[in-house]
Amino acid sequence: MKLNDNDLILVAGGAINGTLINAFARLLDLAINIGKMIGSSIRRLIN
Hints:
By secondary structure, the chain is an all-alpha fold. The chain has two helices and no strands. Helices cover 72% and strands 0% of the residues.
C-alpha cells in the first residue's frame, strides 16, 4: 500500500520508546546530582 502526500500529512504517531524514557531518566538523575552538589557546597560554606 502506498500513501499519497495527503495521507502522509495525516499520519500521527511517535510512541514513547526506550530511548526517550532513558533520556528522561538521565535528565532526572542529572537534576538530582546537581541538587546534591549545590547542597553539599552550601553545607561546606556554612561550616
